[in-house]
Design a protein that fits this description.
The chain is α+β, with helices and mostly antiparallel strands and 186 residues long. The chain contains 5 helices and 7 strands, in the order E-E-H-E-H-E-E-H-E-E-H-H. The chain is globular and about 35 Å long. The longest helix has 19 residues, at 62-80. It has helices at residues 14-18, 62-80, 101-113, 145-160, 163-176, and strands at residues 4-6, 9-11, 46-55, 83-88, 92-100, 117-127, 139-141.
Length: 186
């Protein structure tokens, strides 16, 4: 396959996603293959933003680090009125954040600085009238082959301009968190 390089996001095949090729932030275009910039923090409406990043967590530290992320994010999200979901494949994160635009922009900036993440790329950003994850401060799904493959196809589809693959990833994010949580809280 030819080398596809979009705004600094070099992808030569979908298989490279599963091997950990990082995605680098590009311009502000939302056209296929470009990493989108977060919403303008000066605007105050409710937004839904989904990003993908490469995990930099050492295999031996995964359980402790993911536990730390879930505990801190759950508490912070409740305090800041942020809802959403986190998928972790073992090598990549996919997270949807919903909340006031300035709050989501600040969270995203913190995640970009977090050494556990590399190559963060926003794959979807939209203004919303209502929350899709209203029952969750942070829904979580851990590693599974199905999730890893769906993430790989979604990211490759994003970079290669295949909207169906991105839509399947976004649908997975919405569907796994569609039901209200059971009694578990971190």
């Amino acid at each position: 396959m030819d080398d596809h390089s979009f705004a600094g996001c070099p992808i030569t095949s979908a298989d490279q996603i599963t091997r950990g090729i990082p995605w680098l932030r590009g311009g502000t275009s939302r056209s296929p293959g470009r990493c989108a910039a977060p919403d303008d923090p000066a605007r105050g409406g409710l937004i839904n933003l989904t990003y993908v990043s490469e995990s930099r967590i050492a295999a031996d530290d995964v359980a402790a680090e993911i536990g730390s992320i879930l505990a801190a994010a759950g508490e912070r999200n409740r305090r800041d009125q942020v809802t959403g979901a986190l998928l972790f494949t073992g090598t990549h994160f996919v997270q949807t954040l919903e909340g006031p635009a300035p709050v989501v922009a600040a969270l995203l900036a913190g995640i970009e600085r977090d050494p556990r993440h590399a190559g963060l790329c926003v794959i979807d950003r939209r203004a919303v009238a209502a929350r899709g994850f209203s029952h969750w401060s942070l829904a979580y799904v851990g590693p599974s082959l199905f999730v890893a493959r769906t993430v790989a196809r979604g990211v490759a589809g994003f970079h290669l301009g295949l909207p169906g693959d991105v839509t399947r990833l976004l649908t997975l994010m919405r569907e796994f968190a569609a039901a209200p949580p059971l009694s578990w809280e971190p």
